[in-house]
Amino acid sequence: NSNINKVINIGEELYFPISNYFPLSDPETFRKAHLIGVLNLTSGLFREIIIYPKEFHDKVWSPNDVQRNILFTDDAIYISFSKSKYIYKYDYSGNLLNNGLMAFDEVKEAKSFRSNPNENMFQQARNGAYHTLIYSKQSRTIFRTAIFNDPPLPINSFTDLAASARNRTIGIIAFNEKLE
C-alpha cells in the first residue's frame, strides 16, 4: 500500500489513510471498511470517512486487488485502486464528487478472492495493476502508473513470475484535477 507520508492538514483537521480489518472473504466487508481517518486537532475527536466504491460492494477480493493509493490535494482526495479502471475524487467531507475512467486495456479486472496467497499474487501479476498517483502541483496534473506484461503471459508459478520480468511495462496516464 503506497500510503507513506500521505497526510494533509486542512484547518483544524488532519486527514490520513486508514485500514479497517474485516474478513476479505465476507462480501459485506467493502460496504463497512473506511478508507480515510480524520482527527480534529482541537477537540481530539476522530471520525472515519469514505468507504469503498460500489464496484467493490457485495464481492470478495484478494488483498492484492484492494490496495489503494491516496492523493490529497488542497481541494480534494483522489483514490486509485490496484484493480479499478476508475479514479475516484472526493471532497473533504467524504462526498464523491466524480470518478473518471483512467485505464489501460492491459490491466484486467480482478478475479474474486482466493484462499491461496500465491494464486492471488500470480493472478495480479498476470492481469497487471495500477500503482501510484503522482501530483504535479505546478501544472495541476495527476499521473497514474500501472505495471503490466506486454505481451500478456501465463503466470502460474514463481518461475513464470521471474520470467515475466523482461515483459513488464510501466504505463502512465496523465489527467487534470477534473479527471479529464
What does this structure look like?
The chain has 180 residues and is mainly beta. The chain is built from three helices and eleven strands. A four-stranded antiparallel sheet has the order 1-2-3-4.
A few lines on this structure:
This protein has 180 residues and is mainly beta.
How many DSSP helices? 3
- Please trace the helix and strand order, writing H or E for each element: EEHEEEEEEHEEHE
In round numbers, the mean pLDDT is 88
Query: Low-confidence stretches at least 5 residues in length (pLDDT < 50)?
Result: none
C-alpha geometry: globular
Question: What gyration radius follows from the Cα positions, in whole Å?
Answer: 17 Å
Percentage of residues in strands: 35-45%
Q: Major sheet: size, sense and barrel closure?
A: 4 strands, antiparallel
What is the element layout, followed by pairings?
Layout (H helix, E strand, L loop, with lengths): L7 E3 L2 E5 L11 H4 L1 E7 L5 E6 L16 E5 L4 E5 L4 E5 L5 E6 L15 H11 L1 E8 L4 E9 L8 H6 L4 E9 L4
Question: What attributes does this structure have?
Answer:
38% strand; globular
